[in-house]
Design goal:
0% of the residues lie in helices and 39% in strands. The chain is mainly beta. It has strands spanning 10-13, 20-23, 35-39, 42-50, 57-66, 77-82, 91-96, 101-104, 116-120, 123-131, 153-157. The strands form four sheets. A three-stranded antiparallel beta sheet has the order 2-4-5, with no helix packed on it. A three-stranded antiparallel beta sheet has the order 6-7-9, with no helix packed on it. Strands 8-10-11 form a three-stranded antiparallel beta sheet, with no helix packed on it. It is rod-shaped and about 85 Å long. A hairpin with a 6-residue loop joins strand 4 and strand 5. The model is unreliable at 141-154 and 158-174 (pLDDT under 50).
């Protein structure tokens, strides 16, 4: 099992044979269980030996490679913001999309790989990013709301604010 952002270490799982034990560190340690967990990135050579005669060691040459954990998504870059108008009462935020990432403006409820968020009501939007190959690799705010491993851009859409003043000559009509 390869590392993810949620679990940054890997696991090698073997098909075991009764009466054998296994090593992935050149024989420094041995185990009879099928799983080697918590492994850092690297290539591991699997050795086997009989539990009844630990001098009977087989170096099979079989290897397993644990990849490096994925890196966090890149910071979304807002390419343009189209503000609401009288004719079109919603706005659009367009980002520079990165291959292999997807984006959310609703706290991760929905995700998209396209660069444009259209039909947005006037508000402040935070654009979060995650990897499409590893959806556990999400850039999120820390508990203070300040950037930590946060890769987002806040874009603000302003609505049209009309202030109507009463016409005192029209008997209270606006």
């Amino acid at each position: 099992v390869q590392p993810t952002c949620a679990v940054p270490t890997g696991t090698i799982t073997l098909t075991t044979v009764v009466g054998e034990e296994y090593s992935i560190d050149g024989g420094a340690t041995w185990q009879t269980t099928a799983s080697f967990a918590g492994l850092a990135a690297g290539t591991y050579t699997i050795d086997a030996r009989l539990t009844a005669d630990n001098s009977c060691v087989v170096t099979s040459g079989a290897t397993a490679t644990i990849n490096a954990a994925p890196t966090a998504p890149t910071t979304p870059v807002v390419a343009s913001t189209v503000q609401p108008t009288c004719a079109v009462p919603t706005g659009t935020v367009t980002i520079t999309a990165v291959v292999g990432e997807e984006y959310s403006i609703d706290g991760g409820a929905t995700w998209q790989t396209t660069a444009s968020f259209a039909g947005l009501a006037a508000s402040t939007y935070t654009i979060d990013a995650r990897l499409t190959a590893d959806n556990s690799c999400v850039a999120t705010p820390d508990s203070t709301g300040h950037p930590s491993d946060r890769h987002n851009y806040t874009s603000e859409l302003f609505g049209l604010y009309w202030r109507l003043y009463p016409n005192h000559n029209s008997r209270g009509r606006i």
